[in-house]
UniProtKB/TrEMBL annotation:
Signal peptide: 1-19
Protein name: DUF6973 domain-containing protein
Tagged with keyword Signal: yes
Residue intervals of the DUF6973 domain: 5-132
Protein's UniProt keywords contain Signal: yes
Pfam family, one: DUF6973
Domain of life: Bacteria
Keywords tagged on the record: Signal
Length: 151
């Protein structure tokens, strides 16, 4: 029911978000085949990229504010509908927020109609160099991608 309440009023946003999901997953799998589907650094990249792509596509048909509100609701709902362990959920929500914040950070310098996927792919790959390992629920790494140490 909650998913329908989100997608039915926003059919275009929903379709664009689905496309963004497929794109982000495909790119992350190619770049990080060992960690994109686990809790490693590739997963952090995938979640941030996913949110950047949702924002990029939705901003092409609406305002950044509406796209941001939808993206937040969609990605939060995804975490609720497909629950993980608490630390994994914290990591995913953190990286989703990181992706939305990164998009909004770039927005003033580039008209939203001219965003391309490579802006985010290249930028997030650079930001991965400073990613932090999330070890407990009290960790706070605002401004950094986070992942779990899978050793």
């Amino acid at each position: 029911m909650r998913l329908l309440r989100l997608v039915l009023p926003h059919p275009l946003f929903s379709l664009l978000s689905f496309h963004a999901t497929l794109q982000a997953y495909s790119i992350a799998q190619k770049k990080f085949p060992k960690t994109a589907s686990t809790n490693g650094i590739g997963n952090a990249f995938r979640h941030a990229l996913w949110c950047c792509f949702i924002m990029m596509y939705c901003c092409k048909i609406s305002s950044p504010e509406k796209a941001l509100a939808f993206c937040k609701r969609m990605t939060d709902l995804h975490e609720e509908l497909f629950p993980n362990k608490p630390l994994e959920t914290k990591m995913d929500l953190h990286n989703n927020t990181f992706g939305m914040d990164y998009f909004m950070e770039l927005l003033p310098g580039i008209h939203r109609q001219f965003f391309e996927k490579n802006f985010f792919i290249d930028g997030l790959e650079k930001k991965m160099k400073d990613a932090k390992i999330l070890k407990n629920l009290d960790d706070n790494f605002d401004g950094f991608l986070v992942y779990l140490d899978e050793k």
